[in-house]
């Protein structure tokens, strides 16, 4: 099979399975990673643990926030500069969240292209283990990022970073509230949170968005559309219990979907062919 046909087949399978900011924070990223690891097949799980051995861990959650952490590591300054724009996509269109790569992902500098790039490296058994391990870290992290709605929001408010709010009696912004603020109200650690969400069963997946044939573009559009839902941007810039009651289930469903899709990506990428 040609490389192009193989890539198209991989994208088609993902669509069937799933017809300068941080996302989720360490808690959310660990939850997504744990949800995914719980649903890996035996072969993918074995290959995952082999790659993770270089990090002296068997837990996917332990490397889930690494692509954020490198911004504070002088030794990784070049890599951070190369990848920092890959954590999000800023849509520039109207409320339909239409994804136009030359406009929304110029020169491949967005999360949609970033995911495709690192999944390809992870799948490529001719790459070194070090390159595939680094790719694994980005795939895990970016799959979490792309399901945080404000990592696929609109350019005018920089994904909610410019939308100031009052939350729990303090000034914040909407992006930060979605990253970690609302999740923190559960008072659960990442293992307990993952167990809670996993006990709810497989997350129902949204239907494919025609005519998209790029699963990562679809995931981004789904997140963007969530930001357009009534009430997502709180009236009066104040976030109270009513907002948390309405939106926390949305955030948790995104975590569940992200974990399910990450498991699908890793099962395809890590299982020997």
Automatic annotation (TrEMBL):
Signal peptide limits: 1-22
Alphabetized Pfam families for the sequence: S1-P1_nuclease (PF02265)
GO biological process: DNA catabolic process
Keywords: Disulfide bond, Endonuclease, Glycoprotein, Hydrolase, Metal-binding, Nuclease, Signal
CDD domains: S1-P1_nuclease
Protein origin, superkingdom: Bacteria
Record GO terms (molecular function): endonuclease activity; hydrolase activity, acting on ester bonds; metal ion binding; nucleic acid binding
InterPro entries: PLipase_C/P1_nuclease_dom_sf (IPR008947), S1/P1nuclease (IPR003154)
PANTHER family: ENDONUCLEASE 4 (PTHR33146:SF26)
Record protein name field: S1/P1 Nuclease
Protein species of origin: Rhodanobacter thiooxydans
Organism ancestry: Bacteria, Pseudomonadati, Pseudomonadota, Gammaproteobacteria, Lysobacterales
């Amino acid at each position: 099979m040609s490389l192009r046909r193989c890539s198209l087949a991989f994208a088609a399978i993902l669509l069937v399975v799933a017809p300068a900011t941080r996302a989720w924070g360490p808690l959310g990223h660990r939850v997504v990673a744990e949800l995914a690891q719980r649903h890996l097949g035996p072969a993918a799980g074995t290959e995952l643990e082999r790659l993770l051995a270089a990090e002296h861990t068997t837990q996917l959650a332990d490397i889930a926030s690494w692509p954020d952490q490198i911004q504070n590591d002088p030794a990784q300054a070049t890599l951070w500069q190369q990848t920092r724009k890959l954590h999000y996509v800023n849509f520039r269109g109207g409320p339909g969240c239409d994804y136009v790569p030359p406009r929304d992902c110029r020169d491949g500098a967005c999360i949609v292209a970033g995911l495709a790039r690192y999944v390809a490296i992870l799948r490529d058994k001719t790459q070194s283990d070090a390159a595939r391990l680094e790719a694994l870290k980005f795939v895990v992290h970016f799959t979490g990022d792309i399901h945080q709605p404000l990592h696929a929001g609109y350019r005018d408010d920089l994904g909610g970073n410019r939308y100031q709010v009052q939350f729990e009696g303090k000034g914040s912004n909407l992006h930060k509230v979605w990253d970690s603020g609302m999740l923190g109200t559960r008072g659960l650690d990442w293992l307990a949170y993952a167990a809670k969400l996993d006990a709810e069963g497989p997350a129902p997946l949204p239907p494919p968005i025609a005519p998209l044939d790029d699963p990562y573009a679809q995931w981004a559009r789904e997140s963007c559309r969530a930001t357009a839902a009534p009430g997502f941007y709180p009236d009066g810039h104040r976030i109270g219990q009513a907002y948390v009651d309405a939106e926390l289930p949305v955030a948790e469903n995104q975590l569940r979907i992200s974990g399910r899709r990450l498991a699908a990506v890793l099962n395809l990428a890590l299982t020997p062919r």
